Every structure is written in structure tokens, then in C-alpha cells.
Protein 1
Amino acid sequence: MAVAMRVFREKGYHAASMQEIAHAVGMQKGSLYYYISSKQELLFKIFEEAIGSMARTLEEIYAGPGSPREKLRQAIAAHVHAISQRLDMLTIFLRETKVLSPTQEEIIDIHRLRYERLLQRLVSEGMKAGELRRMDSKLVTYALLGMTNWIYRWYNPSGRFTPDEIADIFAELVFNGLAEREE
Amino acid sequence: MAVAMRVFREKGYHAASMQEIAHAVGMQKGSLYYYISSKQELLFKIFEEAIGSMARTLEEIYAGPGSPREKLRQAIAAHVHAISQRLDMLTIFLRETKVLSPTQEEIIDIHRLRYERLLQRLVSEGMKAGELRRMDSKLVTYALLGMTNWIYRWYNPSGRFTPDEIADIFAELVFNGLAEREE
């Protein structure tokens, strides 16, 4: 799936062939079809694995120990890690439209909404617990998703920042803000 | 250009024809070619107008009155407005790759970098002036760009929030953070 993502990103989904993916992965085309029935199914499985694993991680964080604020910090870190490991995937996800079947699209959408709602619930619970200031939890969630998802546009694996450092700085910005406070 | 953006977003750049754009704008195809030489030139002009006008606005804010922090607040508001007015444009910009000529792509990139660097300079100057806390100004800039650009994914012009309200809440989040402070 990682190889297919790279091929899809480099050539574009439509231009990429199963032949090329098989070649890149060191398989015969026939053998590849043993595992996967079509290019569309491959793309669907890539999306589903990515969003599904992100949702499972978030659910574990949500069910785990810690205050809502600590969990939100963990969630930001997990999201930054997930995106920085799946730059190709998010590029393809945002670029390709109407390539999945309506049913496949619906399944991806369900996972995505589950993820977004759980993140919003973490934000809301932090507010109810008095750890976070009361602001619109939906807009705050979109802001969090925006700053973390946008990583796919600029992150360089051999660049100046590790995912951990990015997550720390983003969490610091989100929790404590940019303004210098008067003593 | 607004009509072309809508057609490009709905049909995809490759599938859309100059015939359809001419029809949507209420022109003969021949008359459209009087104004524009090709579909590629049309897309280039759309991107250039958008990023160019955003850069000019940011330059005016930068050169105008106010402290760096006040200017940064204005910049966030201007960016939110620009994106919420150009949802189609950003969708196409992120979706279509390798459709512009290398020269056209270079020009768009120069504008984009000019914009990003000026925003980063505003952040840095706020830090130097002691109004903003010292954090990595590049990562802060990417966070700002991410949360504001991501608007194209969720903003609904007939939804609950106006661009002004989104800008106010995002600026509040960026400057003062989400954490409840102990008295």
C-alpha cells in the first residue's frame, strides 16, 4: 500500500497502472491481483487503513488515562505523526475526487466523521472540565485539523523538525497561544 | 474567472471544456478566445489573480499602521476572507498538479513564497517587539496557513459562521490559546 501511494502521488491515480504498481513492489501483475481486485479497491483500502488506524488511535487515547487536556495533547501528537507518515496518502485523498464508488466513499466519510466528532468531544470535555476556555468546539476542532493536516504540504522528512517537535510546538501554540502575557 | 473556477471544480480541469465555460458565462466560444488564449492560461490567470491579490492585501497590512500583533490579527482576518471567497480556487489549486507550464508554475510559486515570507516576517517582528512569545516563526506561520487554508474543506457560505466570526475565533485561539488559566 505504501508503494501504491507513492506511485499514485507521482503519476496521478488515473495515469498509474496496476502493472507499474506490481513492478514497483517487485511482483507479477497477476500476483498483485491475487491480493487486490482492482486499482479502485487498492485506493479504497489505502484510505480506509489510514483513517481507520487514526480513529482507533484516537479512541484509545480517549478511553485511556489522563485529563481531557492531556488527552487532547496526545491526540495532536498522534495526528501529527499519522500525517507525517502518510504525506502521499493525504495528497492523493485531497487530489482525487469521484474515484471511489459511492459505497466506498460513504465508508470513508463515516470513519472521517467519527474521527472529527471524537476530537471535538475531547475539546468539549476539556471545556466542561474547566481545563479549556469556552470557545466554539467545532471551530476549534477545524482549526486543529487544519494546522495538523496542512503538514502534508510542507513537511520534509529530512528537514529541521521531527514530528515530535512539530507536535510539541503546535500543542504549545494551541494551549497557550502566541501572545506575550503581562506579568 | 469565477465561472471558470466553478466549472473546473465541478467537472475537473481536464474534463471541462472551453465550450462549457463559454456556455456558462453566456458567450460564444470564439468570443471567449478573444479574451483568453487557452484553458491553461485561464487557470494560470485564476491562480495568479488569487495569490497576487492576497499578497497585495498582506503588503498593505504590513505597511499600514498598528503594532505587529494588530497587523497579524488583520492578516488572519484577510486570509480567512480570501479563502472563504475562493473555495473553488483552493480546491482546484490543491487538486490539479502539472497542468501549468513550468514558467507559470514558477510565477505562482514566487507569489506564494512572497506571501508566506511576509506572514512569517509579521510573526517574527511581533516576537522581536516582545508582543508575541518566542516560538519557531516558520512553524507558527505554517500553523496559521494550515488552519486558515483548511477552511476550503469545511466552510459553508450559508452555514453558522461568517468569515468575520471565524477570523475572530481563530485569532483568539492563536493569540490567547485554549488553556484555561489559573487566576
Protein 2
Amino acid sequence: MGNQVNELARGIIAGEEKALAKGLTFIENRKSGYRELLDSIYPEVRSCPIWGLTGAPGVGKSTITNYLVDSLANRSERIGVIAVDPTSPFSGGAILGDRVRMMDLAGREGIFIRSMASRGALGGLSPAIMDAVSLYQAFGVDRILVETVGVGQSETDIVSLADTVAVIMMPGTGDDVQTIKAGLLEIGDIFAVNKADLEGAETLAGLLQSMLSSRNGDEKWVPPVIKLVASQGQNLDTLLEKFLDHQKSLEKSGQKEKKEKMRNEMALKMHLQARFQDLYLGPLLGTEDWEKAIKSINRREKSPAYWAEKLISRSD
Amino acid sequence: MGNQVNELARGIIAGEEKALAKGLTFIENRKSGYRELLDSIYPEVRSCPIWGLTGAPGVGKSTITNYLVDSLANRSERIGVIAVDPTSPFSGGAILGDRVRMMDLAGREGIFIRSMASRGALGGLSPAIMDAVSLYQAFGVDRILVETVGVGQSETDIVSLADTVAVIMMPGTGDDVQTIKAGLLEIGDIFAVNKADLEGAETLAGLLQSMLSSRNGDEKWVPPVIKLVASQGQNLDTLLEKFLDHQKSLEKSGQKEKKEKMRNEMALKMHLQARFQDLYLGPLLGTEDWEKAIKSINRREKSPAYWAEKLISRSD
């Protein structure tokens, strides 16, 4: 095991594509030894900008991501892409694993794409996503793009992961004010209204603009609102510029470093939770103690709160 | 503290509305003593159907929930509503806390509404939501409705919470196939295409129908697809009927009990995690050990995986 992990780590650090792919799978499946792998590559992690794109399904995220990745690759950058998919509650795997949305880019020189499930076994942003970022950074990419589907939870998680977040919206999804209120204002560094040729695009963009102007004003960066017609390539260059502008602004203000520290704290918390799960929760499932607790809860004798206390003190 | 908790538990069990409201706040804020409260009311928890509604913002969930709650209340049922809101990544609170969507119903006899944040401090479905269900059930409601906003994560969580899940969709949100693929097929017991007077509704409903027909076939229940124009009250009665039908089907097949057991297992896991957080993770934050670990991670000396192992073995 140790040798295999060392070999893998060496390959990743040396920039071998096959090792990267294998390492990402290793990390995602939480195979034994993944902690050693992370530990081996960690000193070689090199900071790079992490960009995030989020929005509801169907707003055109894939088209936009394709453009960004393509443009950056044309500038001879090496790009790591992580496409975060909603997790199936049944299989536990990513649902869009078979997705075609990145087909155009896959296999191109300097472009590395991985689709990953959004959440860990017990909920929350999957720690594997954060570890995949480290792997890309040890392998040596110039930039990482993370695309998450969703309005609800995953899009709030992206804030702790990415330096710069673009929220993609589109007109005509009904109650626009509600959509906007649902946490997105706080999340985005850039707002894009895609399908701007559709009715309601002006209204949505205007609404966004006015809501953003009332956002907490002690920031240096005022999030721009951009109208796109991504399918026709319209204004995508402006979006790319805004990403680059925001990145410069972060570097200048020292926020980049601050964000990195926050990301590290988050990673440590996630690994502590994973550890708890592996060491205590996992081994507990199905034991006599566990079954006794479940039975008692089913009979409504004692509450889950009671049994959690009992079981955790027993494992000390 | 003990006395206050006892008093609260007594009030909830006696069906006092004020005690319920206070208890729900107690549970949501995780005030010290909330475990004792849960434990005190737990033997009085009475099973009742739990219905879930989920869908992206703007699809009309609120109108639909309003109708269902209104109809059931007119049948002299007591209804507990939990409106699950996306959590702000910054304030940690629910974002739509000020929402108006349930205004019509609030304060009506036999209708109890609580808006709650979707997630716990460390991600995942907030355990408080599950505990709120227990509180409602000890208080004595005939039915619980849980409404979650979101396509992504929260809607997969609803499966572990509700007996019956209705997925609400609408036409015109772009890439319908992608929308449908994003895990929703596996989640819904009932599918509703709202705003069925809009272009594309037929196509969406047809697509859903054909995709559902290829869903794993060893089930007794075939999820119906209903077309609604909720704003005009169109077909909402059919939706209510389907909810009642599914509930009967669950009771007949013994699935209701099975779902309850799964819910209990989930609740125990959540409480164990909360316990871990309170006992280990919380006290660790900001300590000398913690700061040392963060510094080492920031300097890329050792990985989060390494430090998680170190820190957790130290706390044993």
C-alpha cells in the first residue's frame, strides 16, 4: 500500500496525467491510503486561482464553463475542472456522471476534467472536492474551475471553495425576487444573466443591480452584472475579463491569502468529521449497541438525542 | 434549566401553542437543554404522515403548499408546516426568514408554521428539522408538510425526512432533460408540472412520464405526473388525492413503518455528529493545538488529513 501511494504521489507531482486521474479516483473513493496520498503531495501544493460557477440547472453553465476553459487553454494555461454533481440519495454516486456537458473539452492538451459527487456520505460538501483541489495544485495547474449545479445548498458551499464565484441566472424562471433572495446575492462576486435575448432579462438584470447596490458597502469590489447570450458567444469575453479583474482585486487587497486560510480551516474541519465517521460512527453501525439504540428509538422509549449521548460516551 | 425544560415539555405534550413555538425555537437554536427537551417529549411522539414538496425557486411551491394546508385544515386536521430555507453562508441563518409565502395561513386555527434553516453548522440537513418533526408529533398534529427550496442537495435530503415527496417542476427553465436527470427522478413519489399553460409543459410532462416508466420496475407505486396551473387552482385537488393515495399505498405495503425506521437511524446519526461537534470539534477551535495545525497547513508542511488524525487521537 505504502509503495503504491508513494508511486502515485510521485507521478502526480511529476505532472503525469495518468497518475492524476488515478489519484483523483483514489481520493474520491476514499480508498485506504488516501490520507497518506494527500499528505505526500501536500508540500508540493502550489496556490492558484480557483474560480466557481453556480446556478440552477439549465441556465447555461456548461456552455459558459466550456468557453472559459477553452479561452484559458488557448492562452497556454493548464486548467483543472471539477464539475460537481448532485448526489443520488440512493446510489451515493454522482448522478450526472455520464454527462456530456464537457465532451468538447475532454482529452484536450492541458485540460483536466473530473466530475464529482456533491456531498459526503453524511451530507455537506464532499471533502473529496476540496482534496481534489489540492491534487490539481500539486500536479500543477494554472487555474481551477469548479462548476456546481444547484440553487439551495451546493451553491453556498462554493463560497468556501472558490476565490471568485460567478452566479449564473436567466430570466423567466418565475418569481425572480424570490430566486434572488435565496442567498445568491451574498455569494456572487460576478452575476451573469444568461439568455439575455429572452423576455425579462432587462428586468432581472436591473433588479440584481439595484439589490447589489444595497449590499454591504464596505467592500472594494462591486459585483458586476453582465448580460450574456452564451449560446451565441455574446459577452462571454466580458465575463472572462471580470473574473480576471476580481482575481487581481483579491491579490491586491490580500483577500486571496485570507480566502486560502479559510479554505484550509474548512478542510481541517471536514477531515476531522471524516475521521470521526471512520473511527466512531462507521464501526458503530450494526453493532449490538447500535441495534439496541435503534430499537429503543423505534419504540419511542428514548430519543435519538439520548442515545447519541450514551453511545458517544461509551466509545471514549 | 431542568424545570424550565420540563415545563416546556409538559406544555407541548398538552398541546399548548405557545409551548410549541417556544420549543421549536429552543430546538432550532440548539440551546442547552434541547436534548433533555427532546428526551422528555419523545415518549409522546405519535406517528403521522409526513409530506414533502420540493422544487427550484419560482416553480410555485408556496401556492401549492398553501392549497394543501388550507384543504386539510378545512377537514379539521391539525397541520404542522416546516418551510426549509437555504442557509446563508455568512449569517448562518435562514435567508427567507422574512418570507411572506405562508402569510395567508399563519395564525389560523390548527395550522402551525415554522421556517427553518436548511443546514447544520457543518453542512448537511440540519438535525433541527428532524427534531422539529418530533416536536410537532408530540404536540399532536395530524399531518406534517415539509417544503424545501432547491435543486441540488436539500431536495435529496427530503427523501430521508418525508414519507411522500412531490417534485414540482415547470416548463421553460431551459435544458429540461438535464433538470430531470439531476436526481429528481429517484426522489419523487409524485411529479407535478406547474404552469402547465406555458409552452413546453406537454413536452416536459411527456418526458417525465417516459423517463419514469423506465424507472426500476419492482415498485408497487408508479409515480404519477400531474399538470397544474396552481395560480388558478387547476388540478390541485388531484395532487392532494395523489398524496393521499400514496400514503395509503405506504401503509398497506408496510413501507410507512420502514420509512420511519430509516428516519430514526438518520436522526441518531445526526445526533451523534452533533455530539461530536459539541464535544470535540467545538472546544478544539481556537485552541493552541488548532492554531498550530492551521499554521502548518497554511505553510503546506502537513496536510489537513494529517492534522485531523493527530488532533482526533489527542482528544481521546
